[in-house]
Amino acid sequence: MNFVEGGCLCGAVRYRASDTALGTSMCHCNSCRRACGAPSVAWAAFRSVDFAFVTGQPIAFRSSPPVVRTFCGKCGTPLTYQHDETPTTIDVLTATLDSPERFAPTKEIWLEHKVGWVPVNEALPHFPRSSTQGRRPAT
User: Fold this and answer.
1) Taking the model in full, what pTM does it have?
2) 112 has pLDDT over 70
3) Which H/E stretch holds residue 62?
4) What is the CA radius of gyration of the chain?
């Protein structure tokens, strides 16, 4: 299996994942925006068994009852997202990958929360909420 790597700004936390993402998206939900301090956030999802932290350990916190997010305790870089309803997957912030250009979003989700001045990519499918409509709410 081939892998991709990524990590935080300061290098204290590094991770490795399969080089094949299960999916990629651009999320506009309120929770992701606030957790990352950005108008939208690009995610790449991987199988949990194909993901591991290889240097350092991030700090984990529950941003809502079903969601655990991680970040670097030294520099504050947000790193991952996991939802209790989908424990076999982990999402990483695409921008934290060493090769983010390989994982361009294939859809935009949670457009009902989108900041008005943020443009959308008209070439991508758009979803008012999660693309799975309720199976995995963005919280």
Assistant:
1) 0.89
2) yes
3) strand 59-64
4) 14
Best CATH choice for the domain 3-113 from the list 2.170.150.70, 3.40.630.30, 2.120.10.30, 2.60.120.1440: 2.170.150.70
Q: In the chain, what is the straight-line distance between the N-terminal and C-terminal CA atoms, in Å?
A: 32
pLDDT single digits (tens) 42-57: 999 999 999 999 999 9
- Residue 131: band (very low, low, confident or very high) from pLDDT cuts 50, 70, 90: confident
Question: Could you tell me how many residues make up the chain?
Answer: 139
**Phi, psi (degrees; rounded to nearest 5) at 36:** -110, -10
How does DSSP classify residue 121? Answer: -
Q: Place 133 in a pLDDT band, splitting at 50, 70 and 90.
A: low
Q: Measured on CA atoms in the order 94, 100, 106, 112, is the torsion positive or negative?
A: positive
Locate 62 and state its tokens: 């529950």
The residues near 71 (Cβ < 8 Å, ≥ 6 apart) are 8, 58, 59, 61, 77, 78, 79
